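Researcher: Hi, I'm a grad student and pretty new to this. My advisor asked me to get structures for two proteins we've been looking at. I'm not sure of the right format, so I'll just paste the first sequence and hope you can take it from there.
Model: That works fine. Here's the first sequence with its C-alpha cells right after it:
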Amino acid sequence: MLILLYGGGCIFEDEVLSERKKQILLGAVEEYIQCASPITSANVRNKFCNDLSTATLRNELNALEAMGYLRQLHTSSGRVPTAKGYRYFVNSIMGDVPLDKSILEEIHKIFDNRAIYLGDMVNEIADIVSKATNYPAVVMLKGFDKLTIKNVKIVPLMTGQALILIETNSGIINNFMPANADMPTQTYVDASNFLTTTFAEHTVADMIQNIENYRVQMGNELLDYVSIFDTMINSLKELSDKIASSGGVTARGELRLLNSPEYQDLDKAKRVIDVLTNPSELEQIFEDENDEEISFKIGAEIPVAELQDCAVARADYTVDGESIASIGIIGPQRMDYAKIASALKFVVGEFANLKALDTTQKGEDNDDK
C-alpha cells in the first residue's frame, strides 16, 4: 500500500510498510487512542506481538519512527503517533467503518418520528453529535437558497402569528410571520394552495429574488393573498439574511475539548475554543468540495493554523448532488476515528430517512364527519 508522505522524519522512496510494520503501527495507534499513554516496546509486545523478540520489535519501532509515523516525546521515553501515523491509521480503517451501537440510540432520538426543520434543527444536531462523541461539533447549513420547493403551508396560530412551513427536497423550512386576526383560516388554506401551485419546483432563491416578476405574472390572482404573500416573502428574506450573516455555522460542546488530556493546558485549549466561536474561521473547514462520505483532516492538512494540532472529521448531507449541510467534529489527533466516523455516518443516514411533514392542505370542515 502506497502511503501519502508528510513532513517529519526521513522519507523513503516508494515507501511501503511490510505487513509486520503495518500491524505494529495500527495496534500502537489504536492503543494510544484508547489509553493516551506513550507507546513502549514492552506494551506493544504484550498486546500485539508476543511472538517477536524485544530486540526485533524495538528495531521495527525505530524504523517506524525514522519513517515519520511515530515520534519520541523525550530521549528514552515512549513514542506517540505523528499526524502521518494517524493518517495511515485512518486510511486503513475507513474501508468499512461499522456503526458503533453504543452511540446510535441517543443520536436517533432527535430524528425519530419528526420532520426536519432546517433552521432550528442545526443546533440540536450539533448538540447531540457533540454529546455522543464527547468532542466539539460544528454544523454548517448551506445551499439554503438552492432548495427546491415542494409544498407551502401557512398556519395561523392563537399567538397572533402564523407558522410558515415550506417543504423542500431536503426537509422543512420553518419560520413565523405576523397574522391578521380578522382573516379567516380558510383564506390561509387557500393562500397556501395558491403558493404551492405557483412555486412548486422553484428554488427558494428564485422565489425571493424574482418577486416582482411573479407579482406581474400572477396579477389579479394574487390580490386576495397579497398581504400573506408579502409577509411570507419578508420573513423568508430575514431568515435567508440571518443564515448568510452567520455563514450558517453553529458550534456546540466547545468545553468538551477540556476532557482530552491534550487540552489540559488552558492556553492551548483557548486557541481552539476561540476558533470554535468564530464562524468565518470555521467556514474554512468546509470550503473545499468533498465527495467522500466521511473524511478526516489531520494536522497540517487543516487550513486553520490554530487547529493544526487537531483532527477534523467531516460528513456532508447531499440532496440531488447539492451539499445542504456539513457536519464536523473537532478534537485531538488522538480522537477515536472509528467511533467518530460511525457517528457521522449514522447522522447522515438519518437525515436521508427523515419523514416528510404532512403538508396536505385541508379546510376546517369535513363533510364526512
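Researcher: Oh nice, that was easy. Here's the second one.
Model: And its structure:
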Amino acid sequence: MPDDAKSMPRFSRAAIEDFMQRCFVATGIPNDDAGTIAHFMAETDIMGKDSHGIFRLPGYIGRLQAGGFNKTPNIRIEQERTATALVDGDNGMGHLVINYCAETAIRKAKQTGVAWVGVHHSNHAGAAGVYAMLPLAHDMIGLYVAVGSANHVPPWGGTESMLSTNPIAVAVPGMEEDPILLDMATTVTSYGKVKVHAQQGIPMPEGWMIDGAGNPLTDASLADSGYLVPIGGAKGYGLALIFGILAGTLNGAAFGKDVVDMNADNSSVTNTGQFIIALDIAAFMDVDTFKRQIDDVIRLMRSSPTLAGVDRVRLPGEGSHAAIADRVAHGIPLSVPLLDGLRNIADELNVAPLD
C-alpha cells in the first residue's frame, strides 16, 4: 500500500464484497459462485494484498465479457489416489477452482494425514496466502503454489521471459499468537504491485525490475519492456523453475512459453496450474502442543536483539494481520484511479456503484 493510503476513501468489506458479487452476477455467473469469488477477493483486500483483490475486478470482467473464463464450469476430480488428486478446473475462475481444491485436500488429509491436490485448466486466483490459510480452520498447515499468469522473468542469465512470479504461501497456526503466513513471489515483487504503481503513477523502488540492458527500471508505465528481478538472483530463478514444474508441468498445465499473459489476452484459455497441500498436525503430534511450540518459536524470533535502525523483529504475516485489524475497524482504502475504473464497470454492467 502506498504511503498516501491514509488519505484514500475507505469502504467496508461488506460493501466491496456485495459490489463485486453484483458485478459478477451481471456478467452471467451464478449467484452462489459470484459470492464465492467476491468473498476470496474481499479476503485478499482485508489482508492488505491490494494488487490482488478488487483491483483485479476490471480485468476479470474484461475476460468474462471476452469469453476467457467459463462462467459455469464443471470443476471435478479427473484422477485421484488416497492422498492425491488432479482436478480439472474447466477454465473456471481461479477462486472457485482453488476453493474446490482446498476442500478436497482438507477432506483427504483428515483421512491420510497429508494430501496434495493439483489442478490444470484453472485461472488466476488472487493472493496465494488466502488459500494457504484455509486448512488452518481444521488444525492443519496449508501450502499453496501457483504458476503466475504472465511471464516477466528470464532464466538466470537469459533475456527472454520464460518464467512468472510463481508464488508460494505457507500458513502455520499458533495457539495465542497469530498464524505465521509466508506469502511471497519468487521475484522481488509481484507484477500486481507493479500494476498498482502504474495505475497511480508512483515510481517503483530500484530493485523491483530491470530494463533490457540490466539497468534499474523505476517507471512502472514501462514495465512491459523490462523484467522482474528474482529474489536471491539465481536462487529465485531456481525456485520459479521448480515451482513451475510442480504446479504446471506435473499437472498438465501451462508452463514456460505456453503461459498466456492474462494482462494482454482476454479470450485465450490460460490453462493455469496450481497445487495445494493440507497437512494434518495431529498426524505428527498433539495439536495443542504444536501450537504452543509455534507460539514459542514466534516469541523466540521476536526476542532477538536488533541491528541498528531496526525497531523489532517481525514474523511473516504480521503485515497482513495488522492490515486486517486496521481495515476491519476503518475500512479498505481504494485509490481514486481505481474508483474511477470501478464506476466505469458499474455503468457498463448497469449495476449500482460502490458506496
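Researcher: Is there anything I should tell my advisor about the second?
Model: You could mention this: The chain has a mean pLDDT of 96.
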